[in-house]
Amino acid sequence: MQINYREIEQAIGYRFRKKSVLELALTHPSFRYETPDTQDDNQRLEYLGDAVLSLVSAEYLFNSHPDAREGDMSKLRSSLTEDRKLAQIGAKVGIGTFLKLGRGEEKNGGATRPSNLADAVEAIIGAAWIDGGARAVNKIFKKVFIPEFDKLKVALGESNPKGDLQEYAQSHGFGVPTYKTIETAGLEHDRTFTVEVATCDQNWKAAAGSKREAERRAAMLALEDLSTLPSG
Predict the structure, then answer these.
(1) Same domain for 196 and 109?
(2) Domain span at 94
(3) What would the pLDDT profile of 113-158 be if each residue is shown by its tens digit?
């Protein structure tokens, strides 16, 4: 029986040229064990997808967070690619409906089992890499994974002090905060930037290894001081 994969392709943002590789990504080992004419399952694709997803996630974080430390990027990447998060993504895009399971696995709730969903998500990434290379994987990543980063940043406590400071200033009748680099020190490969932020008729200074991080720290200092002021 020919299966229509249009629904899941729309959910992940990529249309496979070879449906057979997508079908393989959705084939659980239990189905292969119980079906003599089925030669393969999704375990090899899962292995490939795990590596590809790690690389694409690392590249995205490296490019989108130029001031982030290695540990912060690793924390975000691990949170995105852990089995629990992958299972949530798998459930969200409806993978369980399309999983090919053995009778026993299906009877025992295999279509909603988190480990099966997580494995299938990685297998689909591996299948997309084979079907369309980096371009295909990046389409899926943009559609499915990038929206999850904002949720993770909130869950992991990543703040936006510059945005918060601007919101505070404007809500209290002041203009947009201004940032000025007032000092640059150190060797070219080991610079320290001192930035001053001016808002609410006050100034705050902070230093860091990049202008962006110095601005962020200055905004945090401003927020700390302003939060102690009486309201009204």
Answers:
(1) no
(2) 6-155
(3) 999 999 999 999 999 999 999 999 999 999 999 888 766 665 444 5
**pLDDT for residue 36:** 83
Q: How many helices (H) and strands (E) does the chain have?
A: 11, 3
How do 192-199 and 202-208 pair as beta strands? antiparallel
Global pTM exceeds 0.85? no
The answer to whether the CB of 156 falls within 8 A of the CB of 141 is no
Residues 75 and 103 in one domain: yes
Please calculate the CA angle 30-27-6 and round it to the nearest 5 degrees: 150
Pairing of strands 192-199, 178-185: antiparallel
Q: Residue 109: give its domain's CATH number.
A: 1.10.1520.10
CA distance 29 to 60: 32
Residue finishing a domain among 100, 124, 155: 155
**In which band, very low, low, confident or very high, does the pLDDT at 9 lie, cut at 50, 70 and 90?**
very high
Burial label, 221 (beta-carbon count in 10 A; 0-12, 13-18, 19+): middle
Measured from the Cβ of residue 17, the count of other Cβ atoms closer than 10 Å reads: 10
Residues annotated catalytic, as ranges? 50, 122
Same domain, 34 and 131: yes
- Give a yes or no: residue 73 inside a domain: yes
